[in-house]
TrEMBL record:
The keyword Transferase appears for this protein: no
Keywords: ATP-binding, Cell membrane, Membrane, Nucleotide-binding, Translocase, Transport
Entry superkingdom: Bacteria
Residue ranges annotated for the ABC transporter domain, each copy included: 34-248
Similarity section: Belongs to the ABC transporter superfamily.
Stored InterPro entries: AAA+_ATPase, ABC_transporter-like_ATP-bd, ABC_transporter-like_CS, ABC_transporter_ATP-bind, P-loop_NTPase
Name of the molecule in the record: ATP-binding cassette domain-containing protein
Keyword Cell membrane included in the entry's annotation: yes
GO molecular function: ATP binding
Gene3D superfamilies: P-loop containing nucleotide triphosphate hydrolases
């Protein structure tokens, strides 16, 4: 007689129809909304993603690091449904939205119209305004994209993502083109929006500090697969000066192939006077 297993989530019960006793297991975890199995992506003869497995849990903030050309954007585009995968399986929520390095606003549409662009929804203006309000830009609803600063334009792009009420928010280096101060403000904004709406987030970044500052988990992509998966347990708000932060940063830099010299004070005293070289400053270090 064939065995049919019926998983009853949350009960840890397996019902079988083969007469055997029901087993009591550990409670089943809810299924991850993002699941990639044996996912491969090839461009011609080049295999960029190679039988990659990935899970992102509901409401989880995951950052993805990797050397240039390792396939981060390729993975993000596959998750966004912008590119087809070559083989494997990929489950993603229908409600997903992406924000890229450049805001990609239509220059001939006012800010609020950019927010609801392509959406068939009731009361689009009110919905756009509410989303702009969330990113602190309600007062610029009628602005043309050319009159917005880089940070403002990126916030309109975020509002455009929010209005779609995504279960999965894909961020491809959205802060990379911004000045340092605006980037700090954007970090705060993205965390507060994430707390409020709790989508699953995948943030592609080159900035190790940004990854450790924001994410629950940092992944490193290498040779087409997830080569490292590091949980960040430090409580938010996180300080880059905390030993915990520095330890993870050093670990990630090492995984990314960045040689780190021991801090100057750990070096033995030189016998003869040597020119003073400022210690390497890790803050905002990016690859
Ligand atoms: N449409 C395409 N056709 C052919 N090759 C592509 C295409 N898109 C990406 N690639 C190649 O796939 C590889 C990975 O590119 P991808 O942009 O995903 O890397 P990345 O990790 O995001 O890089 P970076 O950090 O520099 O942005 C690169 O070698 C790139 O040239």
């Amino acid at each position: 007689m064939p065995t049919i297993s019926l998983n009853l989530p949350g009960l840890g019960l397996k019902a079988r129809n083969d007469g055997a006793e029901a087993q009591h297991d550990a409670p089943a975890l809810p299924r991850s909304p993002v699941q990639a199995r044996q996912l491969s992506k090839r461009f011609g003869a080049n295999t960029i993603l190679d039988n990659l497995d990935l899970d992102i849990r509901a409401g989880e903030f995951v950052a993805l690091l990797g050397r240039s050309g390792s396939g981060k954007t390729t993975l993000l585009r596959a998750l966004a449904g912008l590119d087809r995968i070559s083989s494997g399986t990929l489950d993603v929520p229908q409600a997903r939205a992406a924000v890229f390095q450049e805001p990609r606003l239509m220059p001939w549409k006012r800010a609020w119209r950019n927010v609801t662009l392509g959406l068939k929804i009731e009361q689009p203006r009110e919905r756009a305004l509410a989303a702009l309000e969330e990113v602190g830009l309600a007062h610029r609803e009628n602005a043309w994209p050319s009159t917005l600063s880089g940070g403002e334009a990126q916030r309109v792009a975020l509002a455009r993502a929010l209005v779609r009420e995504p279960q999965l928010l894909l961020l491809d280096e959205p802060f990379a083109a911004l000045d340092a101060l605006t980037r700090i403000r954007m970090h705060q904004l993205i965390l507060s929006l994430w707390r409020q709406h709790r989508p699953s987030v995948l943030l592609v970044t080159h900035d190790v500090d940004e990854a450790v500052l924001l994410a629950d988990r940092v992944l490193v992509l290498e040779k087409g697969r997830i080569a490292a998966d590091i949980a960040i347990t430090q409580q938010r708000p996180r300080s880059a000066d905390a030993p915990q932060f520095q330890k993870v940063r050093a670990q990630l830099l090492q995984l990314l192939g960045v040689e780190i010299e021991a801090p100057a004070e750990a070096q033995p005293e030189p016998q003869t006077p040597t020119p003073i070289i400022a210690p390497f400053n890790f803050s905002n270090f990016s690859i």
